[in-house]
């Protein structure tokens, strides 16, 4: 691997505040998105992901005012998701300051939207968010969920990731619903299973709890590691994650922070 591994804090935003729970439930306040985004940029984060976690559930678009304030303040690339359902939604978010846009529920409902967005803006702006959980009935052992992990999509997570890559997504954000917020470590088997069928960059999400958790995710096939709980509540610092990855033999962009 010659491309630097990216370390990406995730801001799960609900009603204008960053929140974090366990398995997408029991949300607790973690702070102001603009303040946290600025802090993470200063600490050497490579990118920032902003997810409006209640947009799809409530059937509305992402809260643009918070996106604009975050984009105006944070200097690192910003990925925004939540309630994105069309190329028009992507256009609005890019104009609000997003560098990339994440889509989940709408792509499951109508996969062709992936091709439409990629054709209009280029696949480099489109991230497919795959919220997956273990399921014995799924061929790969993992199934896709939607609406913030609340509903089964009736799709195999590995098969869906492969199809989405063929349709034109530029990256896949693979989030383990089972591991989300538990701080018990990434689902390495899930990462490896998706890596085996896609060539696009793969972002591992869900379960980071210790410095020792990050390098195995990259070894399993992740090009980037995303975390929320450990960064928001101070148990792990971004600079320490990068040092741990470098010590494990993976290239990273080091910061003076």
Task: Describe this protein's structure.
There is one protein chain. This protein is α/β, with parallel strands linked by helices and 257 residues long. The chain is 35% helix and 27% strand. The chain contains eleven helices and twelve strands. The chain has helices spanning 33-42, 55-58, 64-73, 87-96, 105-109, 112-121, 157-167, 188-195, 214-220, 229-232, 238-247, and strands spanning 6-14, 17-22, 25-31, 48-52, 78-81, 100-103, 126-134, 142-146, 151-156, 171-176, 202-205, 224-227. It has an eight-stranded parallel β-barrel with strand order 1-4-5-6-7-10-11-12, surrounded by seven helices. Strand 2 (17-22) and strand 3 form a beta hairpin. The longest helix has 11 residues, at 157-167. 51% of the residues are buried. Mean pLDDT is 89; it is low at 21-26.
Q: How is the secondary structure organized here?
A:
Elements: E1 6-14, E2 17-22, E3 25-31, H1 33-42, E4 48-52, H2 55-58, H3 64-73, E5 78-81, H4 87-96, E6 100-103, H5 105-109, H6 112-121, E7 126-134, E8 142-146, E9 151-156, H7 157-167, E10 171-176, H8 188-195, E11 202-205, H9 214-220, E12 224-227, H10 229-232, H11 238-247
Parallel strand pairs: 1-4, 1-12, 4-5, 5-6, 6-7, 7-10, 10-11, 11-12
Antiparallel strand pairs: 1-2, 2-3, 7-8, 8-9
